[in-house]
């Protein structure tokens, strides 16, 4: 008999093999953790990454389900937390660049770490590490050298190998024998399972599923289930995700007509389920850098917990049913994957009851206490493991010593105040109260220590009057609290509301713009003038237009709010009530909103962010004098809680990472898929339990489909080994978002399309040509270009011979343009579509968008971005040669009508060159048409590859918009234009 060597364990075993199995089993709890820890101490892990060597350590050999091949660890790319942890001694910060979280430059040479091979289930392989050599020079500017990243030398170690969550499902599957003959058991075959899964995922209620199964067509083709009850029974036999639980919750001082039931899952189990999911292999980061904790154990991995909670209405027009969901995600997963809704990187872990208390005058106080009580239950083990790390397998099966850190809690302003335990009209992230709102200087952060200190004083003053809710409410208001006695984050190590309450782009920026900035503009210009100006803007394919205005609508979506920001500065310019200082105030706020949305932040961009906010505060007095804040309560001041958070956004970005990943767009969408749609499938009575059951079944289906892919892969590999081939036509379900269309990829493109590239831009022309084999005279008439032949002769230097090497051309009416993103030359931006549509009955001037073109040599001034000019794209064509019957060898050309700097916008610089400079107040480039001596528009022929990027042009309106202007005629009738730098985020970074 052999006894377990762990102190405190009295278990005995018959032989050494049974003892080894006990110690290496992850479910042995403390014994397994002790065994892994002592094995690591006896053979400490090297600071170097694990190699692909077939040799394995003793720990790895003893662990069940060990992988047959070693693989290297993952490099750190997207960990959006860590800056609050005290820095390790001896590390010096020199210059900071924030990608998704802070990194810093050091003189130590960067040692690239080999990343693990991507999972076979991955949609695309992970991007290689960036280097200065990988960054091509673009026409926009010389790119800033990428920082050298120094990773923590003792963090993110592997403590052996163990089963992944899929391996565990396979090991614990009680139907392994049945699935050897039928992979899709308990269904009869793959087609039978496919029908069942489809019925579960479509959102049909059980009643309609029964009606579907009773159809004669379905009964003639019998399935293994004949009713919804049998289908549910089969779904319940599939491998299950973390299970749902139910417990009764009581709120101190609150009474309800029936017990409060809280449906939830264990937060730590859900986090481990997501952290160890193999589909995220290659897209998860495990090694921190920049700032470290002094008492951090060697080899620790920080598990970045992201929470989201929000309340939403389930019923429309009738009823008062609400949902209050809690969602969890893993911040270690790559931001690009996590931000995609189809990747299922968010999991619902709780449904906070929405109840009506008998103490109606204290409803909000009791609701806040109930919310914190439920969050305390669901995050209990997450908080415990923030103090005591646990051994958890990662997506590749490597055992990691995981410490769970609260990285971010997503919520709107109401939710953030509830989480921070502060009352209305107070800032959740700073000590600013109502009287301090709107100041030009930031208030101190509202730290956890400060809030807990006030709560302790609150509890002391309450004494034995805890059940006297009116007294408690009045006392909480006096102490600037919301009445919560035990915040859920009170015992979560490193958790601080001033940090984990991250900026919310949807409510704090976009809704702020609509509720305040746009309302101020409407007050100054009038609704009619705003609608008229925005309705005459030129249409751009892929962008929202407002042909009838927008002021008549009372509600707007977040997408509409973003679209209105694109043209806001341009449409208010020139109005007599918009003075230079008022314009600077508006421009400062718009600059702030756009800069804050950068996917990558640096110390320089954060300086720009603060400077934009200072510009608004310097000029807000001029804005107040216009009368927009003349209410009795406003009194000319800007006491807006959302505006106060603007001061703290740079600080939070520097500590937790770039802001777009923390927008509540995620929680708003999760309400639809995890609450509103399942609610329609219930009988609307006690819907919380039914919603949890529906979500459980959906996750079982998703998990089984993933397991089926793994099983099918194993079978296919065995078949390939025995027969030498596998079926290439068999479709593989995708569990990750599909890669974006990449015109720079030479291998995965439609071969029939015409694709051209230069160093920065890729162009795609459809195989279907709009006007095929047209003579130059015909093309000139179709596109209304009388100077086409003369421009062609000049381009080919045939002015004297008056003969061209061709007489027929093919013409397109649009071209797709794609660029790399401004902040990451390895990332691909969403393609643009640029139109060059000739005139027709509905559009008398056609639809011809504008582009930014490379300047020819010999220009007397430096244009936009030191060498570019704006031109209107009128035609895209390719000469057609009869010699070989093919036109593919001829270059694609474009006919453009250039615009030139407006009078007074060319300035002599200190270096002796002339530059095209933007107008001071609006900070936009102003242009006019480039005309010939006879006042006709000058046209020229350029190579299509000379175009850098599409650009948006807004006509200069003046005091009022001319009545004759429409969306189709405004840019043709206007005499002056502004280059719209707010057209999209990429354009803003290019021409800002």
TrEMBL record:
User: Where in the sequence does UniProt note compositional bias of the Low complexity kind?
Assistant: 67-79
Q: Quote the biased-composition stretches of kind Basic and acidic residues, using this chain's numbering.
A: 140-154
Q: Where is this region: Disordered?
A: 44-79, 107-155
Q: Where is there biased composition of kind Polar residues?
A: 44-60
Q: Which residues form the DUF6830 domain?
A: 756-855
**InterPro entries, A to Z:** DUF6830, Plavaka
Feature: compositional bias, Pro residues: 115-129
Q: What is this protein called?
A: DUF6830 domain-containing protein
Q: Which organism is it from?
A: Schizopora paradoxa
